[in-house]
Amino acid sequence: MSWTAAKIPDQTGKVAVVTGGNGGLGLETVRELARKGAHVVIAARNLDKAAAAEADVKAEIPVASLEVRKLDLSSLASIGEFATGVIAAYPVIDLLFNNAGVMATPEWKTEDGFEMQFGTNHLGHFALTARLFPVLLAAPAGRIVNTTSTARFAAGEYDLSNPHHEGVYDSWRAYGYSKLANLQFTLELTERLAAAGAKLKVYAADPGFSDTDLQSTSSTNTGGAGRSRFFAKTTPILGQSAARGALPQLRGGTDPTAPGGTLYRPKYVLRGVPVVGKVGEKLRKPADLAKLWEVSEADTGIDFDVAKMVAETA
Questions:
Q1: Active site residues
Q2: What is the pTM of this model?
Q3: What averages of pLDDT result for each successive group of 10 residues across the chain (314 residues)?
Q4: What is the distance between the terminal CA atoms of the chain, rounded to a whole angstrom?
């Protein structure tokens, strides 16, 4: 039978953090988790938009347990402040949805000097996961879900010696590169957790062709140029709703039968019910996974020693 949001088990007593929970896939993930009783932290850069999202969910689900916290994934300082506040408030985090992202931006830089898409979509979530890792490990059945995209197939040359595309920047290749990194982070973290004997599980989720504000924002950022304009025009017609696009990540976060390390995607690639997706050998080369981890630690300045952190919480 098809997996739908109705199959999400009771989440009462669980604490979830959803990045980008103020719109699109993130908002729908917040909505369904709240509907099932979880307390959800909406992590967002735009607090006005987050407050509107909170009000929207509570209008539908008056008993929803929600809170908004400021998080800018393009700033390591903001990530550190957010993590410190969350850890002080919650000794256990059950679910982390690394959902937020930017798409096909001009060649912008983050506050820390990283290429914006790799810096926000991957490095920001790598740093956030590392900072929240102790309270995620403390959960009896913790889960992390990283949002990838079919754009990973358009990553072009995967040159981890130049992860910020200095001198060769192409907005769509850089986006695909960041989304491939999201998937590979999932695969490598899964391996490291298994080697350390941890209960915490990690998943990747591909929303397919989903109608969110990501497309219109991309079009605005690029002045309505090229592919950004095309996707902004066609996604509302050909894509699926944000609610359906959120199902792969909701399945990864809540399906009790889901094996760790699984990629969930729409059945018909761009749309459809969430099913298990295959990851080809080209995208899971051990040397690439290890190199990405090394680059991520160097860029963020974080020693993300999974084995050590698991041992310290045992």
A1: 175
A2: 0.93
A3: 94 98 98 98 98 98 98 98 98 98 97 98 98 98 98 87 96 96 98 98 95 58 56 64 97 97 95 96 95 98 98 91
A4: 38
